Amino acid sequence: MPRRPASERHDRTTPVAEGQLGSETGSALLDVLTAFHHPTRRWLCELLLVEGPASVGQLARRTGLAVGSVSHHLGTLHRYGFVEPAPELARDTRESWWRSRPRQVSWDSTDYGEGTVARRIASSAEAENFRHHVRAVQRWLADGESAPPDVRRAAVATDSLVAATLEQMAELSRRLTELVVEWGQECRADAEARPDVPRLPVRVSARVFPSAPAKP
Question: I want to staple 87 with a disulfide (CB 3.0 to 4.6 A). Which of 6, 102, 150, 186 is the partner?
Fold first, then answer.
């Protein structure tokens, strides 16, 4: 039996609601959180985002994972719109190529009833998201000392503990979000306009929340 083209092999994982990606609620949002906040799948997403499109075989060699495991994780990510096939890059029908498809995910675990399975899923996703950020910071702390001085000067770590009203906290959250989104759009536009300029994968992580004095 001839091998099906990649476009047909990926039909079963194609997102069923392309126009609704990023606006999921209820159980549909829980499915998205479960799919994305998995350490291996998050890693695969970032590899495709930072290093560019890759085949399943290349990702398997890059990560040390089995080819079948990579294919399974990519299928799950495809179903929820985080990656998409790149069949035009395949040299033959045996290759399965993928590219990143960045999308936004936002949620509040308190939208789900206290003590419910749904609340636990949403809370677990938030905890795993935090652990992912911690791993990235730990990697920077371990490797950053060997980075060029101009790279170290361009990076920043800032911390503040200020008495503020609820309205002021919400305003800071809004302004930070808008700034990061706008900055990201400018970077992507500049990358298209000047593709030959050297670039670094830059991670931005910010949290705004009420905090008592941190106990050591």
Answer: 6
Residue 30's CB: how many other CB atoms inside 10 A?
20
The SS3 assignment for 16 reads coil
Nearest residue to 205 (alpha-carbon basis) of 124, 137, 109:
137
Per-residue model confidence as pLDDT tens digits over 191-213 = 999 999 999 999 999 899 999 88
pTM reported for the whole predicted model = 0.85
d(CA 6, CA 27): 30
Between CA 210 and CA 184, with CA 137 as vertex, the angle to 5 degrees is: 80
Q: Is 80 exposed, middle or buried, given 0-12, 13-18 or 19+ CB atoms closer than 10 A?
A: buried
**Which amino acid is it at 212?**
A
172-179's contacts with Cβ under 8 Å and 24+ in sequence apart are 172/208, 173/208, 176/206, 176/208
| pLDDT, tens digit, 9 for 90 and up, residues 108-142 | 999 999 999 999 999 999 999 999 999 999 999 99
CA distance 63 to 40: 9
Q: Is the dihedral of CA 186, 187, 190, 191 positive or negative?
A: negative
Write the DSSP string, 57-92: HHHHHHH---HHHHHHHHHHHHHTTSEEE-GGG-SS
Q: Is 188 exposed, middle or buried (0-12, 13-18, 19+ CB in 10 A)?
A: exposed
Q: CA 19 to CA 38: how far, in whole Å?
A: 24
